[in-house]
Amino acid sequence: MELKLPILSLFTLVVSLNTLTTINSATGQNVEIPVRVGVVVDMGYTGQMGLVCIQMALSEFYAAHNHFETRLLLSHRDSNRDIVGAAAAALDLLKNEEVQAIIGPLTSEQTNFVINLGDKAHVPVITFSATSPSLSSIRSSYFIRATLNDSSQVQAIGAIIQAFGWRQVVPIYVDNEFGEGIIPSLTDALEQVNAHVPYRSVIPPSATDDQIAGELYKLMTMPTRVFVVHMRALLGRRLFAKAKQVGMMSKEYVWIITDGIANELNSIESSVMESMLGVIGVRPHFARTEEFHKFEIRYKKTVWQKNPTEYHSLDLSIYGLWAYDSAIALALAVEKARVRNATFLKANTSSNWTDLERIGVSSIGPELIKALSSTTFRGLAGKFELIDGQLQTPPYEIVNVVGPRERVVSYWTKEMGIIRQLIFTDVNTNTYTTSNSNIAPITWPGDRTSPPKGWVIPTSGKKLRIGVPVKYGFFEFLKVTSSNNTTHVEGYSKDVFDAVIKSLPYSVQYEYIPFSTSDHTGSYNDLVYQVYKKNFDGAVGDIAIVANRSQYVDFTLPYTQSGVSMVVPVRDDNSKKAWVFLKPLTKKLWVTTFCSFVLIGFLIWILEHRINEDFRGPPWEQLGVTFWFAFSTMVFTQKERVISNMSRIVLIIWFLVVLILIQSYTASLTSMLTVQQMQPTVTDVNELIRKHENVGYQEGSFVYGLLIGMHFEESNLKAFKSTQEMDELFTKGTANGGIAAAFDDIPCLKIFLANYCSKYTMVGPTYKTDGFGFIFQKGSPLVTDISGAILKVTQSTKMMEIEKKWLGNESRCSSPNASFSSNSLALESFWGLFMIVWIVALSAFIIYVVRFLHQNWHVVNRSDTESTTLDKILELIQSFYNRDLSYHAFRNIEIRENRNCCGCDCTRRVEESLCTNAPPSPILPSPEQQNGRNLVEQDSSLQNNSTNVQGGEIQRDETRNQT
Q1: Residue 39, Ramachandran bin (φ over 0: left; ψ between -120 and 50: alpha; else beta)
Q2: With contact defined as beta carbons under 8 Å apart, do 951 and 929 qualify?
Q3: Among 169, 131, 174, which residue's Cα sits nearest to residue 253?
């Protein structure tokens, strides 16, 4: 009976609810379905603001949507700013209140455990202030971040660093999950803009003022002056107050705050804000619309009504807007999921299970999280749209703290970079920029208007230790001497470094420290390694920039010419002087010139032989005349006249080409004959390797490794220390333990050749290197400034003075390559002239062919069935070989009528030629005289200068007298 009573009561309650639903439906009233929602926040500034905004959001939302069937009922718990307190509050809400969703907690540390509870109970956990990227790694399908991931702002910070050219940045962050979560993404963003993190400053969440001061004093001893601060405003205000006290808010410092502080600047006291003068920061941008201003007024009115004493301490921030939008999104999702009977499915429990194991599972969890993930609307903080369970990166404001308030100096977007004004229309996404010209004038710490350089010499005043290698040769670059415990350094590299340091806009104190190994030699690789081990701050000398060294140190820009080359002895080459006349022109130019002579001669014969007796005669005689005429134009001694105008045009152009070729050839040959012909003994590196010749390299240089990589045997490598020792090795030769060639940096080889230019020369390919540079420790901020100073010095007259002082005047010795370098004229220098003459020649030939075919078109167009194509071709060839009687030179012809020996009348044509007594060419009768008869005659009759025509032939009288 005791068990039946509760069952009966429950049955009565269900029936009552159904009856009430039926009555309300009949009367047209909506039934409000309650859905419990938990809120877990700290009752501090952000927590109270968030709770008020959530309550206002639901009140205003349901007032505007009274037709909705669902209603969110809030159950609030205070986490007491404690991780365990937040977990206990969430557990209580899930177990006792059976909430279907949880808004909160505030911090990333608290949210971490609550996410796991929500995942177990299938209850969505919505946070509007937990921003640590580490929360995304939990991979819970029931976690919604209605705020921004901290990693979304690191690109904006990197853009600022790049805009002002800072190369080292020290992050200062709180030692908890919120602070540590941003460091990996921040470091990656800085590396993308070529900035390094030499040190990380970690502040405990409960640090005392003395602990903060101790960490700040440690930072003051370091050269880096650019700091990125990532912590909440509660700890941040103490940090900046102490930084002001110890003198770290002066003009040489740069302070950048993340949105952890920038979002809550309105909650910081004015006295602390004054200590933050010059600080810049980034924070999400949201539109200050009319709707926002109205809500801000309602919010302040609500806070005043609840607690007038805290009115001024609860200014609205973006966290309140996110809390407001979170409540609206949850209300829309609950309605969208059509929640009707939200219950918890209890697990089968035993008396030994813990409270965590007794948590049930929400029956509407999967539908609710699905509806929440697809909810989209325009909220107070902007567009509310979740992708992968979190809001997407909005534009960021770049703010500058000036006096008691902050002002926006620029904006950053992931599409366009740093821009002066936001543009919300479609823009070209390829215009990403980080130019500081898009940033309004900034007030920096110390009331400075120009941006700090971002680093200084440490406050300890310690001089930079600059290592210099001890050398025993090539003292022009560097010479180190010691006497009476005093080190004296001089040389080209040292003077360049001194000039570069003096050109910097700030003072740098440094001292030279000699470096040598146990055998009293200074290996360059060993010196690089000492800089890497931080035994030296940098190094100066003739140190080549090569790839393997750059893995350990940072190089400046080079201050000398780059490359490695080979020097070999030279000898006077007399064996090739007999054929020196062929060297002025290359093979291609010789062949092209010869072919042009032949083609021009042949073209002139084509144009002249039908009208000019000088180009007629037996075939071999015509061939000889053609070649004679062609090559006689080379010296302009041709005797044959040209009659055709086309021939004259071609020859005018050809004479111009020949004149230019002859003058160029003469000048080049003269130069070759007057310069001493010195040839290198070796020109091919492979020849040295094949013959196992000894080669030299400067001791301690990286060239040794280069030669080993070129497959020289180690036994064939000889080291030298000075130019004198290098000359001695050359004098000995390979057979006597000397060398046949030497490899070194081009600047060193130039010094050697300046003293021995008559005996040696530089040959072979140049193996590219980046020249000589100064080295510093990895990540040193000096590298950028000194590289810029090197450009200034090398482009000034100061560099010329240094080079003249140490390297001398290179013009005192002629170029080692001048004696044997190729001065041959190439076809590329004359192709334009040849192109012109060939175009003219081709045009003349085409015109001639067209005219010839036009004159003999009756032959081509003949429709005689007995004439084959071969007959026509033979007739055209015969006509081409004969004189052109239509030309004006053959028009003086008299026609006489005589009677022949047989008593019949005939017409005797007497040719009155204007030419000399050259043997006449046979002339075929015209078609009219042939009366359609065959024109093909025997070759023998043509050679006897008589033509017989069937049916009334005309016999040419060769014995006639000239008129």
Answers
A1: beta
A2: no
A3: 169
287's tokens: 């539109």
CA distance 142 to 122: 7
Angle at 220 between CA 217 and CA 223, to 5 degrees: 155
Return the SS3 of 457.
coil
pTM of the predicted protein model: 0.61
Quote the tokens at residue 847. Answer: 């015109």
Asked if residue 454 lies in contact with residue 167, where contact means CB atoms within 8 angstroms, the answer is: yes
Task: Say how many CA atoms lie within 13 Å of 665 toward its Cβ.
Answer: 17
Report the b/e string of 19-36 with b at 16+ CB within 10 A. Answer: eeeeeeeeeeeeeebebe
Alpha-carbon span 782 to 167, nearest angstrom: 9
Question: H or E element: which one contains 836?
Answer: helix 831-855
Residues 6 or more apart whose Cβ sits within 8 Å of residue 582: 590
Rg for the chain, CA atoms, rounded: 50
Distance CA 254, CA 445 (A): 7
Which two three-digit tokens encode residue 611? 């009208």
Distance CA 684, CA 768 (A): 17
- Amino acid 881 reads Y
Question: 893-899 and 905-911: which strand pairing?
Answer: antiparallel
Instruction: Give residue for tokens 């010195």.
Output: 678
Write out 592-614 in H/E/C secondary structure. Answer: HHHHHHHHHHHHHHHHHCCCCHH
> Within a 10 A sphere around the Cβ of 337, how many other Cβ atoms?
21
Q: Which of 290-299, 430-439, 876-885 has the lowest average pLDDT? A: 876-885
Over the stretch 762-796, which tens digit does the pLDDT of each residue have?
987 888 888 899 999 987 878 888 999 999 999 89
User: Which tokens in the block code for residue 862?
Assistant: 């003949």
Distance CA 152, CA 130 (A): 14
The β-bridge relationship of strands 564-572 and 741-745 is: antiparallel
Cα–Cα distance measured from residue 451 to residue 689, given in angstroms and rounded to the nearest whole number = 57
Give the model confidence (pLDDT) of 863-885 as tens digits. Answer: 766 677 787 788 778 777 777 76
